[in-house]
């Protein structure tokens, strides 16, 4: 030991004491001097781990959904009761519509065919996000794995995109029924309805794959706290290590096609419906049609504007207080309102419900 130079002996002593303290990788950065080694050894564990993280960032394997954890316990209890009631109501109403439209032979028109699939999409949509939020309002552990987060995001994309397209097809169906009643059976045949619904599902699955790739194309090594109650794409992308601008721009362009195009078709369809009604309906018929169209457009505007705020706004204008209300609007409020607006105000649907209750009571 004495035959070696002092610095070399000190270096051997440090390496023997902590052989794995500093990663020896020439490509990882500049050469580390003996003074830096000694400084590193006598740092506190917290500062030491922080130094290692800065030099060799580790890959994120889980996310933390912040959700409503910053709220007080009484507020969380109130939110749990409210969201549980809304979720139960939405599931019950949509489940009833699915059962009625798929079992009652009198409801065999295209409108009820589309309503059944819309309710099924609503069930998938809210089940993907709301139960997890309810659990996180009760337990303190808000950690979700990387796989769970990506799976949830994919399902939200699939159901959301399919619902956007299906709402446009439903508006077109109403346009054909009111403006071209003599050709309605020929234009909206069973085969055409099946193809339209299949198209909505197909674009949902394909678009979900595309958006999933954009969201997770970059590695994650930054903060893993998601300031929302579910894994929303723009927030997750902002946490990635690489440049998120490309993914955000592509999602913006995709939202223009997926959100704006169906919304334009819906507005055009209802504009033609209103113009047709104004030209030939009585005052009472006009009032009923205006009420129906206004209700449909209200749900559509809520759904599309909240989704556009989440996916078409610059991230600089976002924040937890702004994102959560809009996320709640299109994840739970709209799926709960759809059955009320599209179904429960319909006389044929009410009659089908009465028949279903009678069959249940007899059974």
From TrEMBL:
Family: Belongs to the G-protein coupled receptor 1 family.
G-protein coupled receptors family 1 profile domain segment(s): 93-342
UniProt keyword annotation of Lipid biosynthesis present: no
Sections of the chain in a coiled coil: none
Domain of life: Eukaryota
Major location (coarse): membrane
GO cellular component, one term: plasma membrane
Transmembrane stretches, start-end: 77-100, 112-134, 154-172, 192-210, 255-278, 290-312, 327-345
Protein name per the record: Olfactory receptor
Topology of the protein relative to the lipid bilayer: Multi-pass membrane protein
Molecular function (Gene Ontology), one example: olfactory receptor activity
UniProt-listed PROSITE patterns: G_PROTEIN_RECEP_F1_1 (PS00237), G_PROTEIN_RECEP_F1_2 (PS50262)
Protein location: Cell membrane
Keywords noted in UniProt: Cell membrane, G-protein coupled receptor, Membrane, Olfaction, Receptor, Sensory transduction, Transducer, Transmembrane, Transmembrane helix
Job of this protein: Putative odorant or sperm cell receptor.
PANTHER family referenced in this protein's UniProt entry, alphabetically: OLFACTORY RECEPTOR
């Amino acid at each position: 030991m004495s035959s070696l130079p002092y610095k070399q002996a000190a270096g051997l002593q440090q390496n023997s004491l902590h052989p794995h303290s500093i990663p020896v990788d020439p490509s990882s950065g500049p050469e580390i001097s003996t003074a830096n080694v000694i400084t590193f050894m006598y740092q506190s564990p917290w500062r030491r781990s922080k130094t290692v993280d800065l030099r060799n960032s580790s890959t994120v394997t889980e996310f933390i959904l912040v959700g409503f954890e910053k709220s007080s316990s009484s507020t969380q209890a109130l939110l749990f009761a409210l969201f549980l009631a809304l979720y139960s109501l939405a599931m019950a109403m949509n489940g009833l519509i699915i059962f009625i439209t798929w079992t009652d032979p009198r409801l065999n028109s295209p409108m009820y065919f589309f309503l059944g699939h819309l309710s099924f999409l609503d069930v998938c949509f809210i089940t993907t996000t709301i139960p997890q939020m309810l659990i996180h309002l009760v337990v303190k552990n808000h950690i979700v794995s990387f796989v769970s987060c990506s799976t949830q995001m994919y399902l939200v994309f699939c159901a959301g995109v399919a619902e956007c397209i299906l709402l446009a097809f439903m508006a077109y169906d109403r346009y054909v029924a009111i403006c071209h009643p003599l050709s309605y059976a020929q234009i909206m045949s069973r085969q055409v309805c099946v193809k339209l619904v299949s198209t909505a599902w197909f674009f949902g699955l394909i678009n979900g794959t595309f958006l999933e790739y954009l969201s997770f194309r970059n590695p994650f090594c930054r903060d893993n706290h998601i300031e929302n109650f579910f894994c929303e794409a723009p927030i997750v992308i902002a946490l990635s290590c690489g440049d998120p601008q490309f993914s955000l721009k592509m999602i913006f362009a995709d939202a223009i096609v997926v959100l704006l195009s169906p919304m334009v078709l819906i507005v055009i369809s209802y504009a033609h419906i209103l113009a047709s009604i104004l030209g030939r309906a009585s005052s009472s018929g006009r009032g009923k049609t205006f009420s129906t169209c206004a209700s449909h457009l209200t749900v559509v505007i809520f759904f599309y504007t909240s989704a556009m705020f989440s996916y078409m706004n610059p991230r600089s204008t976002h924040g937890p207080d702004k994102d959560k209300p809009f996320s709640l609007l299109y994840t739970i409020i709209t799926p709960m309102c759809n059955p009320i607006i599209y179904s429960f105000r319909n006389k044929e649907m009410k009659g089908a419900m009465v028949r279903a209750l009678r069959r249940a009571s007899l059974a």
